[in-house]
Amino acid sequence: MQVMEAEASTTPDLSEASNVLQRLAGAVRAQVIGRDQVIELTVIALLADGHVLLEDFPGSGKTTLAKALGEAIVDDHSPSDATDAVPIAAFRRIQFTPDLLPSDVTGSPVFDTNSNTFHFRHGPIFAHVVLADEINRTSPKVQSAMLEAMGEKQVTVDNITYPLDPLFFVIATQNPLDLVGTYPLPTPQLDRFLFKITMSHIDRDAELAVLDTWQQRRDPAADRIRVGRNEILSARKSIDQHVYIADGIKSTLVDISRALRADERVVQGNSTRSLVLILPALQVLAALRGRNYVNADDLEMLLPHVLTHRVELAPGVSDFGKVLRDCMREPLEQLARSTLKTHHSSDK
Q1: What's the pTM?
Q2: How far apart are CA 69 and CA 31, in angstroms?
Q3: Where is the ATPase AAA-3 domain (predicted)?
Q4: Could you tell me which of 281, 272, 257 has the C-alpha nearest to residue 196?
Q5: Residue 314 per-residue DSSP state
Q6: pLDDT > 70? residue 102
Q7: Rounded CA gap, 338 and 251, in Å?
């Protein structure tokens, strides 16, 4: 009955939020060709207040994607709702290397000879969209600094905490093949990423379109879609308030997780935190699809990207997709039966 009521209700706020989603996705698609699913997942993560880990090959468009997303955001907030009027850049790229220091990311105190005092110089992490390129090539100390920023939306330098903007989004990358000299991300930091997306080469037609439009897409004078920072934060709040998640959806998430943990092909299952993190992502996907309720299709689309980096398979098992499909089958069938029963009883 609750699902039926949720379907029947519509709100102008949710329509505006859906419009913000479409404009953001459209702005990135104008610059990044052949990556529609990656763009959609990235926009979902941004609105769901999560972060994205990309496994990709050099030259696959990760920098273009992150830059296009950052440049689509207009910083329209006033100093009163900023923290200490920190200057926020639209986009910053950090190339991670073994010799990088935490202060190279977060910033550091600088001595001012005129006033004989120290002032904090903000690092590149103070941006709306941060591309953490090859994050597994830097030391665990720098990775820990990133972990605090991603998890707590703040950085701490010399025992002083500096808040980051509410619209702080990290796109981290790692090369799945060239692993020599890298520092594998620890499980706690992997768990901070909402999605892990494995990218492959785009198809032939898309690659031709990239070559045909490269001059047009790099033209700085071209009209481009822009979305205000406050619009995005308002859309995030509206989706949270107006997209309904039925108890059956939550039960299905828990049952799938329990099935994974009990499966003999799985050494370590996903955390409870991953179930909490996926809820706003499901809401955003429903809004992007023009619905004010989450359904089973949303679960099936997002779960592989949420769980693939959180579930450790037993030695000799490599097909995570098959393991997940097997563990999803029974809970999804139960959800379908309960939904049909609810609809049938409401018709009476």
Answers
A1: 0.89
A2: 9
A3: 51-195
A4: 281
A5: P
A6: yes
A7: 11
Q: Report the topology of domain 243-340.
A: Helicase, Ruva Protein; domain 3 (1.10.8)
Task: Write down the domain spans for the chain.
Answer: 20-233, 243-340
Question: Hey, what are 135's tokens?
Answer: 């994050």
Residue carrying structure tokens 């499901």:
282
Q: Is 70 left (phi over 0), alpha (psi -120 to 50) or beta?
A: alpha
CATH number given to 20-233: 3.40.50.300
pLDDT in tens, 5-25: 444 444 667 899 999 999 999
Are 331 and 252 contacting, i.e. CB atoms less than 8 angstroms apart?
yes
User: What's the pLDDT score for residue 254?
Assistant: 97
User: Nearest to residue 35, comparing CAs of 73, 70, 80, 68?
Assistant: 68
Q: How far apart are the first and last CA of the chain?
A: 11
Rounded to an integer, the average pLDDT of 156-179 is: 86
Is pLDDT at 343 greater than 70 in this prediction? no
Residue (of 340, 306, 283) closest to 52 by Cα position? 306
Contact 279, 50 (CB under 8 A): no
pLDDT over 60 at 348, yes or no? no
